């Protein structure tokens, strides 16, 4: 008989791998975004982050911008303020994302939900990169990490609008990497699996209540025996953002405890 795996306490590390770097991280008020902000600060980076509402607390020195990056105006505001605060931006982490599960299936997803998911999960990254990339190109350096989702690898019908938007993001990442690489800018994707975070927890509850068992519902087995923690994903993002990943671009780092491969 095998014993259950006990999830370790996942803590962000204090490795100074981002010392002297400046970063813009979207969706930094909770979950993966908050863990990434904390990891970058511990790594020595200066950070500007954003969200739709002001969080209760942030690591010391982090500049928080209230901005809805699902809108073009929100992205424009964030980009302008980030340049004011940081001067130059070395790293962009497009983490902001959201969706609503529709247990009734694909035909139950309203038209406006398809548009909303494209805006927050795909076009927010496209717009922010477009605003900040010209300066990266001029400087001949930079790193962009776009955060996708394991639903792209096995799309559940109730989340097809979300999976389609995140799939667009991964395709966009590969194409942008081809253009940006010769100009000194690396572009990669991090694809999280089942992670304990407010957004993912809400989706899992909805799908579980409706009898769903897609990746977001946590229905598949995870070889490493537990769901992920936000810090698991933050470590992957920090690695790809840092100079330790200097020869990695157009990559897609799946961080899911082995769930998709095992399925």
TrEMBL record:
Q: Which residues cross the membrane?
A: none
Specify the superkingdom.
Bacteria
The record's annotation in CDD domains points to: SDR_c
Q: Which Pfam families match?
A: adh_short_C2
* A single MF term (Gene Ontology): oxidoreductase activity
For this UniProt record, the keywords arranged alphabetically read as follows:
Oxidoreductase
- InterPro entries on file: NAD(P)-bd_dom_sf, Sc_DH/Rdtase_CS, SDR_fam
Family the UniProt entry places it in: Belongs to the short-chain dehydrogenases/reductases (SDR) family.
Q: Which PANTHER family match?
A: OXIDOREDUCTASE, SHORT-CHAIN DEHYDROGENASE/REDUCTASE FAMILY (AFU_ORTHOLOGUE AFUA_5G02870) (PTHR43639), SHORT-CHAIN DEHYDROGENASE_REDUCTASE FAMILY PROTEIN (PTHR43639:SF1)
Protein name (Swiss-Prot/TrEMBL): Short chain dehydrogenase [Actinoplanes friuliensis DSM 7358]
- What organism is listed for this UniProt entry? Mycolicibacterium parafortuitum (Mycobacterium parafortuitum)
Q: What is the lineage of its organism?
A: Bacteria, Bacillati, Actinomycetota, Actinomycetes, Mycobacteriales
């Amino acid at each position: 008989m095998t014993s259950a795996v006990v999830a370790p306490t996942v803590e962000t590390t204090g490795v100074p791998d981002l010392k002297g770097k400046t970063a813009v991280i979207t969706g930094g008020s909770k979950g993966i975004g908050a863990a990434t902000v904390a990891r970058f600060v511990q790594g020595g980076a200066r950070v500007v982050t954003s969200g739709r509402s002001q969080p209760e607390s942030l690591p010391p020195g982090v500049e928080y911008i209230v901005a809805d990056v699902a809108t073009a105006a929100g992205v424009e505001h964030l980009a302008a303020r980030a340049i004011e605060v940081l001067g130059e931006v070395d790293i962009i982490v497009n983490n902001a994302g959201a969706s609503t599960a529709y247990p009734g299936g694909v035909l139950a997803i309203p038209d406006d939900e398809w548009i909303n998911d494209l805006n927050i999960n795909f076009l927010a990254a496209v717009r922010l990169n477009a605003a900040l990339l010209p300066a990266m190109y001029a400087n001949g350096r930079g790193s962009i990490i776009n955060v996708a989702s394991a639903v792209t690898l096995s799309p559940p019908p109730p989340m097809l609008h979300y999976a389609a938007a995140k799939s667009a993001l991964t395709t966009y990442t590969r194409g942008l990497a081809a253009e940006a690489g010769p100009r000194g800018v690396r572009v990669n994707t991090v694809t999280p699996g089942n992670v304990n975070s407010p957004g993912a927890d809400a989706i899992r509850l909805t799908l579980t209540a409706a009898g769903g068992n897609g990746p977001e519902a946590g229905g598949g087995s995870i070889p490493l025996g537990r769901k992920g923690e936000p810090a698991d994903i933050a470590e992957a993002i920090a690695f790809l953002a840092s100079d330790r990943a200097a020869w990695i671009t157009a990559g897609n780092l799946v961080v899911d405890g082995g769930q998709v491969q095992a399925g």
